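Regression test attached.
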Amino acid sequence: MKSEPRTKTTVLTFTALLATLISIHAASGAAADMLATPESFAAIADTAARSAALFTEAGKVLTHPRCMNCHPAGDRPRQGDVQRLHQPPVARGEDGFGLPAMRCQICHQAANFEPAGVPGNPAWHLAPHEMGWEGKTLAQICEQIKDPARNGGRSLEDIVHHVGEDHLVGWAWAPGGDRTPAPGTQAQAGALLDAWVKTGAVCPN
Amino acid sequence: MLECGNALVPQVVIGQAQGGFAMGVGQALLETLPLYEDGPGNGKWTLGQYVVARGSDLPLRDLEIEVLPPVDADERPKGIGEVVMIPVVAALVNAIFDATGHRFRALPVTQAMIKGVLT
Amino acid sequence: MTTLTVTINGRSYGPTEVRDELTMNDYLREYLGLTGTKFGCGAAQCLSCAVIVDNPDGSSYTSPTCIVPATSFNGKSIRTVEGHAKNGELTVLQKAFIEHFAFQCGYCTAGFLNEGQVLLDRLARKRVPRADLEKTIAEALDGHLCRCTGYAKYHEAVRDVILADPQRYLL
């Protein structure tokens, strides 16, 4: 059809314009793929406000698809940057490591397998139900993370260690394939949460 | 209900009807396939995006298939296959109209689309 | 490059030097000519590539081969569709598939056969209540896609094998 190429050009131009507008908006804070350092929050005089702001920055990691996909509200993980339901359809099973016919580790090996685009880590599994973050606000996730009944009995220091040093958590920054890594580095995320704990572990509103 | 002339292997006729039903469910409710780069044209689609019917999507024990006898005894085999899916698609979209009052005119009719007209 | 030794259908293959990027599917089909295992979607969505992995403790599970490196099977013992029949004698499940006309084009059949056999072996080790049977079969087979059959006769075949020997498989 004669009009088709012109329509496609119009659509492409609009998409490019939209992409530019979105990237301008993202650049107005710290860039979406970077994490601010704890020191950059020193300008906030009020300790409680500074604490909450530190957690909000760390929240860029917690709410990133690499983390959210395996902290679902239900029994099924999500997949990819678009966070669609994991295909093939798999479920957490009794222990978070999958149903008997489809254990996570049958497909997800100890390391990313690039020829197939499959991410991997020795501990691949779903976070337990009580650590599901899907559909929650950052304030709710913050309360949940601080609650020993819902965070696996962890102290605040344990949480800093978990985010900053755990091997499976660390996968989020080297996910392989065309998956966008979590923002910043694992060490930076740990540093932000460490500063958050030291300023009173205040949750944002 | 189907009529295929003389069935040479009746079990395979039933099998094809069951498969055709599954394809109808897929086309009506599951199989999203946009044109060009929005779809598999971008070279990255897998069965994760082009979703076909699994066993759990189908009424495996509740599907009733009736094979009508041929019109007369000499009738030649007419064949059966994916043709089964054609009325299945129509029946499903009509059922959705019956349930929601909304006539969808493009396929597939996904869960999200049905939710969208239920408010 | 990694050295790969794997037992397939009771026979040891290797040691063979293989690239680390080699998938198990390519190893079976291209290196060994065992083409009973198929390549369908390349994304573990259809499971026409699934083989049985036998654990030392006697339990077994199915694994895709299309996205799993061959080297991860090093030292393991697997069964492919070629390994079910013994001396030309088909297994109970294979006969049930034939009698029920469970397959049509046959592309998904190796996967369904492996999955069905793993289910039978699992139930023989830990039986389930009769009331849970349909759900158990459905969960076990749901990972496998089929375009021809609509799944019904596969489920019937597996169910009838189990119901023909209830003391073995059911509580």
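Expected vs. actual: identical. The radius of gyration of chain B is 17 Å.
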